[in-house]
Design goal:
Mean pLDDT: 87
Helix content: 40-55%
Strand content: under 5%
Order of helices and strands: EEHHHHH
Low-confidence stretches: none
Bound molecules: zinc ion
Shape: globular
Structural class: mainly alpha
Number of domains: 1
Distance between the termini: 44 Å
Largest sheet: 2 strands, antiparallel
Length: about 140
């Protein structure tokens, strides 16, 4: 039975207990990562969107999967890790996790590793989402 104070990520099924809440400014990243890891089944998302249609009946463009991965990652960090304040360290970690999944998507769909264009574009999409959700402001330039 899942207690009301516990939360399950609807995307990856990770369970987080109430006591594993992190409001601190310095996030215990490795602890969060080991107790409630972000998992994302890229192949499953590709399959889901290949069957879905937009409101106008048109199929989705392939890149919709990258945006869905981004959405699931942000949801997980916000609602399962319960991060209230995003710092540079967590930003870099999220970007790394996102790029790993974007690269996986690229290999699955084209057989090639993610292009420089895709890595740059997906980073910009993630940053826009982090600014929207956490009012995130990068302290230094991340390379
Ligand atoms: Zn999740």
């Amino acid at each position: 039975m899942i207690h009301a104070s516990q939360k399950i990520c609807p995307h990856c099924g990770t369970l987080n207990k109430k006591e594993e809440r992190y409001d601190d400014e310095v996030v215990a990243l490795e602890l969060l990562n080991s107790k409630a890891p972000f998992t994302c089944d890229v192949l499953k998302i590709i399959g889901e969107f290949s069957e879905k249609r937009k409101a106008d009946g048109e199929p989705y463009k392939p890149l919709v999967v990258v945006h869905e991965i981004k959405r699931q990652l942000v949801f997980h960090v916000q609602r399962i890790w319960r991060v209230k304040r995003l710092d540079d360290k967590l930003y870099r970690r999220m970007l790394q996790m996102f790029h790993e999944k974007v690269d996986e998507w690229s290999r699955l769909t084209s057989g090639k590793k993610a292009s420089g264009w895709l890595l740059t574009a997906s980073r910009e999409w993630l940053e826009a989402e982090l600014i929207r959700v956490w009012k995130y402001q990068k302290e230094k330039e991340v390379v």
